[in-house]
Amino acid sequence: MSVLLSKTAEYGVRAVLYIGRNQSKRVTTKDMAKDLKVPFHFLAKVIQKLVKFGIIHSKRGKNGGFVLKKPPEKIKLIDIVVALDGDELLKNCVLGLPNCSDKKPCPVHDYWRGIREEIKQMLSQKTVAELLTGEFKI
């Protein structure tokens, strides 16, 4: 379970990695949901957003399925996260306080700002290709 990303973004990253690992064939939402052990209907909505934002490509029909729209080295993690969750993680107060700002900081504002910048930098630098080379279970 991810403590930083929403379930939507977590499933989206996992789906993109799954598709990237299976680039030699088109994969279906049904196969992904089964293999990743995630709810089919929820994953289908995540996949629709990823198609809409140009991260994956969908082909209908007998030989249909999904493939990455761009090479894995051109897809940054931030592309997936922002497509699915927007950029709130990278802008909003970690405590969810609506009035928190640089002028009126919450008790953890300055600390979170540094962490948020590190997270943004990591998500902006890491590509799907880099994650695909790692030895981990999706």
UniProtKB/TrEMBL annotation:
Species of the source: Candidatus Chryseopegocella kryptomonas
GO CC terms in record: cytosol
Listed InterPro entries: TR_Rrf2-type_CS, Tscrpt_reg_Rrf2, WH-like_DNA-bd_sf, WH_DNA-bd_sf
Listed GO MF terms: DNA-binding transcription factor activity
Pfam families given in the database record: Rrf2 (PF02082)
Record protein name field: Transcriptional regulator, BadM/Rrf2 family
